[in-house]
From TrEMBL:
It comes from Pacificimonas flava. It catalyses: AMP + diphosphate = 5-phospho-alpha-D-ribose 1-diphosphate + adenine. InterPro entries: Ade_phspho_trans, PRTase-like, PRTase_dom, UPRTase/APRTase. This is Adenine phosphoribosyltransferase. It is found in: Cytoplasm.
Amino acid sequence: MSLAHLKSLIRTIPDFPKAGIRFRDVSSLLVDAAGFAEAVERMASIAPQDIDLVAGIEARGFIFAGAIAGKIDAGVLMVRKGGKLPGPAMGRDYALEYGEDRLEIHDGQIPAGSRVLLVDDLIATGGTALTSCRLIEDAGAEVAGAVFLIDLPDLGGAQRLRDSGLDTHALLTFEGE
Ligand SMILES: O=P(O)(O)OC[C@H]1O[C@H](OP(=O)(O)OP(=O)(O)O)[C@H](O)[C@@H]1O
Ligand SMILES: Nc1ncnc2[nH]cnc12
């Protein structure tokens, strides 16, 4: 399947969740078996090698992280929104394109020396991904790279990640459309 076809499976919803936001909705890709499989295959193939743990960011990131982890024989670390983890956790607050939130990970779930791959459906301002990286680093681990299905370059997030030294990849971009 071509990247153009893959991209065509992602619908855009205007003015969600706020006026002026063009929401790139991966649910229309997820219900397409061939499209979802292609996205996961391609995301796994552009990721750095020798990954021990895939960190998936709630909620849409979980779907891609789990599928990629299955392909590369890695575990999954859940990066959850604040207050959802049952055990002792560490967290950080962050700003979104359309609001504010908090991310948390469980204490003690990243074995020493692990190479962690960060995965999410989309990067916009980069606040979510950068906060996740900092959290993983707070836990003493190395983030080996980050893979996204979609990059919104107008919002500069992927560039922020690269500027911070992170090996950053995205399959598709939506720019001025
Ligand atoms: O690069 P940023 O500006 O930080 O934005 C990207 C984040 O925004 C979306 O998640 P959202 O917080 O809407 O949560 P959801 O997956 O639970 O819908 C998306 O799935 C990323 O996690
Ligand atoms: N424009 C957008 N579409 C979908 N998810 C997003 N997360 C942040 N910005 C987004």
